Amino acid sequence: MIVLANTLSAVALVLGSLLNIYFWIVIIATILTWVRPDPYNPIVRTLRMLTEPVFYRVRKWLPFTYTNGLDFSPIIVILAIELVNRIVVASLAQYALTLQ
């Protein structure tokens, strides 16, 4: 049982870290849209490659997120990240603690 608890704890830790990294990627990509950097910069291209598929799906599922030239899909993505982090990751960590 201790192996399962440690595995769930590790999964919760890794998932929480990945969500935190993606949170900051979304924040940086959103700030970069205000500045209009060089689109051929490899860092900008990487950030867009990581965020645009998710933003596109949010815009497709919730068409009201893009109105009057304002794109609110990063806010929806950030809220979803926080929701998953607070519910799924916290539940995994708490369940791992109960198994020990």
Model description:
By secondary structure, the chain is mainly alpha-helical. The chain has one domain. Helices cover 81% and strands 4% of the residues. It is built from three helices and two strands; from the N terminus they run ααββα. A two-stranded antiparallel ribbon has the order 1-2. Strand 1 and strand 2 form a beta hairpin. Helix 1 crosses helix 2. The longest helix is centred in the first third of the chain and has 34 residues. The radius of gyration is 17 Å and the shape is elongated. The relative contact order is 0.19. The model has no long low-confidence stretch (mean pLDDT 94).
Topology as H/E string?
A: HHEEH
Low-confidence stretches: none
Instruction: Indicate the radius of gyration in whole angstroms.
Output: 17 Å
| Strand runs, count | 2
| Number of separate structural domains | 1
Cα separation of the termini: 7 Å
What sort of overall outline do the alpha carbons produce when their principal axes are compared? elongated
pLDDT averaged over residues: 94
> Which sheet architecture does the biggest sheet show?
2 strands, antiparallel
**Number of H/I helices:** 3
> Proportion of β residues?
under 5%
Percent helix range: over 70%
Which structural class should the secondary elements be placed in?
A: mainly alpha
Strand order of the largest sheet: 1-2
